[in-house]
Specification:
With 279 residues, the protein is of the alpha+beta class. It has helices at residues 3-21, 103-112, 244-247, 273-276, and strands at residues 29-30, 47-48, 136-137, 168-169, 194-198, 201-206, 218-223, 229-230, 233-234, 239-242, 252-253. The strands form 4 sheets. Strands 4-10-7-6-5 form a 5-stranded antiparallel sheet. A hairpin with a 2-residue loop joins strand 5 and strand 6 (201-206). It is globular, with a radius of gyration of 20 Å.
């Protein structure tokens, strides 16, 4: 039996098992070409006719932006100081310190802040030079011809006060070493987390389905901000943070009307929200 056929049969069996189990987090379909993140000439939404490459809008195999922790990042970035965050609201219910915008969230905002054009790339396809002067079309009028997001739900801007906090310690802290004991979290109204070690570094996530870290889980991103004070104590060492990509995966295709905006899982019955929040 050919290997590709065997893999296909295994994938089909896994999908059928997930459907039979009735899991709300059954399977997550990743197909970037079929999503709104396909900005190339083959895309069906905001797009440019200047390239048929899809991945180039975010990634490059050589000469990547090494200031970012995301894989082979091909984009210029907005300065972290340009953003205001949820912490600026002064909410009395916010009991976790928020770090400056960074990590994977800063990478997401290199498009979604509306300040950086879609062709602001380090390496254009095949040339090794920045792409400039590409023309974009937008069927829903949410992007300018120059490739700047201008309106719509995807255009977050630099004022993030009306968005879910990013760069915030999960459960306000005290998670490390207490992963399975939410009562010991600074804010106990959160579910416990799993931790896995990759290349000697701990990574945390909230399990949503089958055992093992995968794209359907709520991924927590590791940062080290030793000067953050939470609950009167100093947080030091690598900690799990909530970032944009904790809830969103830029590559996934929606499985239903409740999995909008590249959510990692369907939010039917607020399943995504309640994966982390114990309410």
């Amino acid at each position: 039996m050919k290997r590709v056929k065997y893999i296909s049969m295994v994938a089909t069996a896994v999908a059928m098992t997930a459907m039979a189990s009735g899991s709300a987090f059954a399977m997550v379909d990743s197909d970037i070409a079929s999503t709104k993140h396909n900005l190339s000439a083959t895309g069906g939404g905001n797009q440019t006719g200047d390239t048929t490459e899809i991945c180039v809008f975010c990634h490059t195999p050589h000469g990547a932006n090494i200031t970012q922790v995301v894989p082979l990042w091909n984009r210029n970035m907005t300065a972290p100081t340009a953003f205001s965050t949820y912490a600026d609201l002064g909410s009395s219910t916010l009991d976790g310190s928020i770090a400056a915008v960074g990590s994977v969230s800063l990478a997401c905002l290199s498009c979604h802040d509306g300040q950086v054009a879609m062709d602001s790339l380090l390496n254009a396809p095949g040339s090794g030079n920045p792409a400039t002067g590409w023309t974009f079309t937008s069927p829903d009028s949410t992007m300018s011809a120059d490739g700047f997001l201008s309106s719509g739900i995807a255009m977050l801007g630099t004022d993030l006060r009306d968005d879910h906090p990013v760069g915030i310690l999960y459960a306000a802290g005290n998670v490390v070493g207490n992963e399975g004991t939410p009562a010991n979290f600074t804010d106990p109204d959160f579910f416990g987390v799993e931790v896995t070690t990759i290349n000697g570094t701990n990574y945390w996530y909230v399990e949503t389905g089958s055992a093992g870290r995968d794209r359907a889980d709520m991924i927590l991103y590791t940062r080290t901000d030793p000067n953050l004070a939470t609950g009167g104590s100093v947080i030091s060492g690598t900690q799990p943070y909530v970032e944009c990509a904790s809830c969103h995966d830029p590559h996934v295709v929606a499985v239903d009307a409740n999995q909008v905006s590249f959510l990692r899982i369907s939010n039917a019955g607020s399943a995504l929200c309640l994966a982390c929040h114990d309410k």
